[in-house]
Predict the structure of Ste24 endopeptidase.
Amino acid sequence: MSTRVWAVATLGVLLVLIGIVAITRVPWSGAPAPRSEQLAALAGLPADAVAKGKAFNAALRPGSYGSMVIGLVVALVLGLTPFGARIVEAVGRPLGGHWLAQAVLGGLVIVLIGEVVSLPFAAWRHTVLKRYGLSTQDWGAWLVDLLKAYGVGAVLGALVLAGFFTITRLFPQWWWAVGAGAAAALVLVLTFVFPVLVEPVFNKFTPMEDGALRDSLVQLAERDGVPVKDVLVADASRRTRAVNAYVSGYGATRRIVVYDTLLREAPEAEVRSVVAHELSHARSNDVLTGTLLGALGSAAAVVLVYLLGAWEPLLRRAGVDSIAEPRAVALLMAIAIVGGLVAGPVQAYVSRKVEARSDAHALELTGDPETFQAMMTRLAMVNLADPDPNRVEHGLFGSHPSTVERLAMARAWAK
Ligand SMILES: [Zn+2]
């Protein structure tokens, strides 16, 4: 068999594995509660809060779409013309055109160009967040966060670029197979490492102080049969008024994190309701599901890139001889960005299904639909969510069921 046939076969196997994980681990069944119930829930929300949520999201919209479009256009211009390859060459020239300099510095410059063109949109977004009182950051703190994010991205990007192009040099025939394995391994490692190494760069985490709330949360976790090592409080108030909680990592790094803003804003019963939702993620190993899908998806993406590399017109457009050479890094970024835009709505759909399961579980665990609804209403109002968003946008980008869907679910459960 030729290398190409092996690649096609491998891609087939990976897609079957993705299918198996998706079918067995994602809760596909269950539709949102009836629209009539959603409208009844919407009517129960304060009209001014609904209007404010809609106005806030409308104010964010032009910036979000603008950033998406300009990012795509720049990626396509750099990736599908020889312009990107020329930039990579120019960046590597002072270092004698060494392949590693082209791969790492050239790659980072291409990424940086994408970041810089979308920077005005990020700043615009911050002005909207300030205007609506959601952000508590001044421009200095905002800039520090931005530079930290660039720093984390540059370290990770340099590792990925150096790793990828080392593999393509060492294994000219089989780089796609080694690269697919390495990509999958990287996703697994990052899931472990991210909560421990990266989250502390942006937030300070302290164990929740002893007391009735902590006891009741630990008790809730015990009753749910979920081993929770710790409940941590993140100092999110440095940045935002938004309230949230989440679960990250798995095994020894798994912990539940509660925003300090949530503790400040919500009564203890509502905090318990939020944590009950998060416990469901731990209980169903949703982080593991996401990691498995991410690892298999990344491996499949590497094989797909190899197969795309056989498409001569594409290489000619980018002015490169091979998709595996450092000069092709802009082409690779363009493929990654297009791939991300295509995969986004699929990820959002899966995420909504998983989140709906957590909501249902929170209702079962607490047996308290009134508190659940009070909590969801508070979440929407404090976070300035649009409780009943445009259906198309919600379908494409919504990571959670909408507020009215969540309220309607609780109302239906109560009946
Ligand atoms: Zn959740």
